[in-house]
Amino acid sequence: xxxxxxxxxxxxxxRWAAALLLSAxxxxxxxxxxxxxxxxxxxxxxxxxxxxxxxxxxxxxxxxLAGLLVSTSSLGDRFGRKRMLLLGYVVFGVASALVLWAExxxxxxxxxxALGVGGAMIMPxxxxxxxxxxxxxxxxxxxxxxxxxVSGVGAAIGPIVGGVLLENFSWRAAFMVNVPVxxxxxxxxxxxxxxxxxxxxxxxxxxxxxxxxxGMVALVWSIKRxxxxxxxxxxxxxxxxxxxxxxxxxxxxxxxxxEYPLLDVRLFERRQFSAGIIAALGVMFAMAAALLLxxxxxxxxxxxxxxxxxxxxxPVAVAAVVASLAAxxxxxxxxxxxxxxxxxxxxxxxxxxxxxxxxxxxxxxxAPLILVGVGMGAMTxxxxxxxxxxxxxxxxxAAALEESSYDLGNVLGVAILGSVAAMLYTADADFGAIPGxxxxxxxxxxxxxxxxxxxxxxxxxxxxxxxxxxxxTASLQTxxxxxxxxxxxVAIGVYALTPKGTDxxxxxx
Length: 509
What we know:
With 509 residues, this protein is mainly alpha-helical. Helix content is 78%, strand content 0%.
């Protein structure tokens, strides 16, 4: 194998075909995550997971993925990025197919974890290969725009495809749809993509890999445990947080003092790199939980079917596609920091608008959804800021850090904001005040919106459903307000941190 920088140059046709394939790889993962949001109510009705299990089904994928990104990207740099990508396709496809034999929430959680392993092989590799295939910085910025736009298309078609599948099949179809797609991209990628490696320098840091995985898993688990216990004084959570801080701190120290570290944390010395990472982390933290809650609200409160829900989520996806294609062009005129911070502010306004109306209906959701999509599309600039000044040999590190920020933000958003919404739902619904509802039934209905709706139908008690709908709507609106405030703070920080005149087409040094 040779390093791509010494390999024969690819033709323009092959370069853009490769860009489409790499973007499609991201598309599959985006569709998978979006479909799951639509499938959660059906899955919950079939397998009856507890509230904690339901949260794990949603975010164990991102937890595993975030923990493995650094290690898989480093291994891909050494042993072949193409090899890592193709192996990721195999793992993702096989894990998706095994859902046919899943009969318990625990088994679904295990399969989601396996999908996380496959995703960790795929996601950073797509960015790394774009960085090395497109050597011209202006052309690379366009390729990154395509990469982000296809991700937005995934958000658009995911709910619709998921809705069609769920109208005709069980929730398992939301997993099985990955299998033929993975088979196709595997076959094409085998012949289309060039191999790319970085010459191995020093032994692979096994201890560093173990430290990065342990630290990330401990960090996410501690946050989830804080949320579950509804207390910042939770003993197990505090112990896990202490372990995470200690292990990750030692990992950073180790990386700074090794000649050839597993992860080059000195990349953060570049202000535009740090600003891009913070933007990705902040936008996913605020939006992940809100979009998940909106999908549940549309199906269980507004009464839309899966297909109707998918169609009604289209504004956020269409806006994301348009914004992701327009953002690099606008950055050339207005500056990268203005476009990126402006997109974050737009998303912040959209989130806050969720809390504005006393009575929430779909007509009042259209503007917030569009504004949130604009914010997601602006992440094209964040990706370009992260990758544009990164040397080729550090492209894997940069991609791993960017994807880690997206996925850690997703996990933290679902864990923290999702748990805040669950707490507010339990408090606002007040099932104990309903005549004829005993304590056990009230507690069961307070576990989740899906559980309350199922109990209401079984008991023939519409009051339970009404209280659940009102409580969930109130919790959704408050969560939107919290997320909007967080996004505004991130926008201010990103604007201040990004150097004036930052050019996202700068050649790597």
